[in-house]
Amino acid sequence: MEQRKEQTTAPQDFDYKRYIHIVLKRKWIVIAIVAISMFYTFFQTTRITPFYRSIARIVLEVRNPANYISVREVFEMDPGSNTYLQTQFRIIKSRSIAMEVIRRLNLEKDSRFFPKPRSDIFAKIGRKYKNLVKSVKKKFMGLLNTGEKESIIAKNIKKAAGDKDENEKVPAHLIASVVGRTGVYQVPGTRLMDISFTSPDPVLAAQIVNEIVKVYIDQSIEEKFKVTQEALGWLNQKAEDQIKRVETAETALLKYKEKEGLMTDFSANAGNVALSELAKLNSKVVEAQAMRIELETRYQQAISVKDDPELMGSTSEVLASELVREIKKMEVVLYNRLSELSKKYGPNHPQMISVNSELEGLRKRRENEIRRIAISLRNDYKLALTKERNIKKALKMHKGKMVELNKKAIKYGQLQREASNAKQMYDMLITRLKETSFSLEIKPERIRVVDNAEPNRSPVNINTKNKMRNAALIGILLGVSIVFLLEYLDNTIKIPTEIDHFLKIPYLGPIHAFDSKEEMKGMSGELITAHSPKSSPSESFRGIRTSILFSAADIEPQVILVTSAAPGEGKSLVSANLAITMAQAGSRVILLDCDMRRPRQNHIFDMNRDKGLSSLMVGEIEQDECITHSSIDNLDLISSGHVPPNPSELLGSKKMVSFMKSLRENYTRIIIDTPPVTAVTDAAILSQQADGILLVIRSGVTHKRLVENGVINLKAVNARFLGAVLNGIDQKRDSYYYNQHYYNYYGDTRAREKVRKIKSKKKGRV
């Protein structure tokens, strides 16, 4: 069971032959839909009003456009760019050009622009249908429009639309028609443009295209001059405003110089001079500070030793004094003399007193000189301090002047820049004004007509060949779609794989359809295995016989019950022919007609059913009396007998069980023909006496759910299925599923000869 599930869920290869078979099986549906589609297309084509298209070709010869303002890099559009060309396309298809063309050609009154409606019966029916639809739509909208406010709004909209049309003086539908029929295309890789127009009249189409080109050229030139004139006026106005700004800025600069008494323009040299002076003052301040510090140091040193003459004399200023050095020399001489005199005289000697007196005078002179030097150091220090303060004061004042001067320079620079910018803007406007004035004589671009439009006598909307081809293609697609939809909606069993995958029972083989109404060789046409043993249907029954015999590996089934899911599927025919094929194989076979409600075997074998199975079950006759020997060797028959009121009770009785046991002892194969399994319970009851069940399914007739219910009913009573057969197979229609060539090979000589003749005729035609 698991293996079967894996097989059903495994992906299958794309079987294109099956899809071809599905289409060929219902090919007449496809053919009918294709025929209807082509007929309808042809009918519609004959009713179409022909439209003719005329084409004019122009070229845009681009020159350098005039620059009206200085920011052209921002607003300038490359004339060779796709954006520029697309803009021109939209201009050509604009309402303004359409209105001008209508006005120039007076199209509103030209009957060629709107052809008269067709007067044939189909056109009248179509117009009546459209009028009916409009009337119904109008009434429906009237039912919806119940509010007074909505009606007022609708009136206002209509009034606005009427005012707009009145202002334009051209009907809106006429403008829309001209715009809609106009086509503009670019020739790839060039600046060539094709302008086309479609109209029912070829001459009018050419006239309108040529007029569109003229209007486009005229409006283009007019627009360029209009833009130039507007730019010129704008530049004039801006120049007048700018000269006033120049005068105002220059006047403000002059007044500021007069107010501040400025004689300089604050050039870079003046700034450099001021900075140089400031640097010099800074240098002097540094020098004065150094000098003051040095003098202050000397002065402080002198003050610290002023009370000690000896220490005072050791200072550098004293040592550097010439007078002090001379006094010291004189003192040395006097000390030497005093030393010599002291050797001769005493301290009170007049010479000693005189020398000491001179030494004392020299000492006082030296001290006085030292004091003078100290006073000089103090004066130098105070002078250096005063000088330093004065230089710092001068530096501070200079800095203040520099700050004030910078403020004035900033204000002056601002006013000067305003005046300069105003002057530059004025000069630029004057330059652009001159360029714009000059550009009035130069066209920025020239539109040249390459080819004028000529009347075209071939309609563009009627191409019968293409339309018929498209109709055929659409019909094929629609027909194939419907065929596959019908195939999808068809819930009947048609192919062998559905038996295996859907019913989960073995498939034993097909039974080819044949004519069973005509008698052959004095017997019923249904017994094809008897009167036509070499035919394809006979070979089908022999194949089913082989499948049944090999359906079980251990033992061959002896009692075979034949049934179906619903009436009319050919179970009786299958039972009869299967019994014949088994008898032809040498087995002793008996066929029981257990369908006591609608017996068929007595008609097939043309026998009397008065003494049958029902008579045996009620005890009217003996077993030997109900058995009929047929004209076919090894085949006996038992008819159903009279139709009893309780067939199920008879078939399920103990007598039926004992009767089946006796038949098993006397016959090799027992074939039981039973009623449909979904109609009554007879088949389910008899399945307990059978070795296997053969289920007959008519291809393309029996519904899957019906067969499935029958299989479920039989499996519920533990019935054993030998398998199922597909009855009524059309060899031509279902050749994809059933190898008809195999059966033709084993078929009769006449069939093979007929096929051979058909093939030879086909080769002869080739």
Descriptive notes:
There is one protein chain. By secondary structure, the protein is of the alpha/beta class. Among the domains are: 21-226 and 447-466, no CATH class; 504-731, Rossmann fold, CATH 3.40.50. 62% of the residues lie in helices and 10% in strands. The protein is built from 29 helices and twelve strands. The strands form two sheets. An eight-stranded mixed sheet has the order 5-12-11-6-10-7-9-8, sandwiched between helices. Strand 11, helix 27 (704-716) and strand 12 (721-729) form a beta-alpha-beta unit. The protein starts with a helix and ends with a helix. Residues 1-12, 64-77, 146-154, 163-167, 739-759 and 761-766 have low confidence and may be disordered.
Write the layout of secondary structure elements.
Layout: H1 2-9, H2 16-25, H3 27-47, E1 52-62, H4 72-75, H5 82-92, H6 95-105, H7 121-144, H8 148-168, H9 172-181, E2 182-186, E3 192-199, H10 202-260, H11 268-304, H12 309-313, H13 316-319, H14 322-344, H15 350-439, E4 445-451, H16 464-489, H17 496-503, E5 507-512, H18 528-531, H19 536-549, E6 559-564, H20 571-584, E7 589-593, H21 601-604, H22 613-617, H23 623-626, E8 627-629, E9 635-638, H24 647-651, H25 654-666, E10 669-673, H26 682-686, E11 692-698, H27 704-716, E12 721-729, H28 740-746, H29 749-765
Parallel strand pairs: 5-12, 6-10, 6-11, 7-9, 7-10, 11-12
Antiparallel strand pairs: 1-3, 1-4, 2-3, 8-9
Helix pairs in contact: 3-16, 6-9, 6-10, 10-15, 11-15, 14-15, 19-20, 19-28
Q: Taking Cα atoms only, what radius of gyration do you get, to the nearest Å?
A: 66 Å
Q: Can you summarize the main beta sheet?
A: 8 strands, mixed
Beta content comes to 5-15%
Please report the first level of CATH classification, the CATH class of one domain. Answer: Alpha Beta
Helix content: 55-70%
The CATH architecture of one domain is 3-Layer(aba) Sandwich
**What low-confidence regions span 5 or more consecutive residues with pLDDT below 50?**
1-12, 64-77, 146-154, 163-167, 739-759, 761-766
Q: What distance lies between the first and last C-alpha atoms, to the nearest angstrom? A: 53 Å
Q: What structural class do you assign from the helix and strand content?
A: alpha/beta
Shape: elongated
The name of the CATH superfamily of one domain reads: P-loop containing nucleotide triphosphate hydrolases
Number-wise, the strands total: 12
pLDDT average, as an integer?
76
Q: CATH topology of one domain, anyone?
A: Rossmann fold
What spatial order of strands do you see in the largest sheet?
Answer: 5-12-11-6-10-7-9-8
Helices, by number, come to 29
